[in-house]
């Protein structure tokens, strides 16, 4: 028996759906289990907070945060 395109698509849909649902479930569970962090400065993309640090006395910047 030769499967049509619809049959092959149906066979492929089941494993792909299983993988997507499992990955989404794990992502949501991991997000829920993480402890909330205290508030801090908002970082810039890629460089973070490097521009906010005083280069002469960086320990003062760290204690402010």
UniProtKB/TrEMBL annotation:
InterPro entries cross-referenced by the UniProt entry: Cyt_P450_sf (IPR036396)
Segments traversing the membrane: 6-24
An example molecular function term from Gene Ontology annotations: iron ion binding
Keyword check for Protease: no
Keywords: Membrane, Transmembrane, Transmembrane helix
Gene3D superfamilies on file: Cytochrome P450
Protein name: Uncharacterized protein
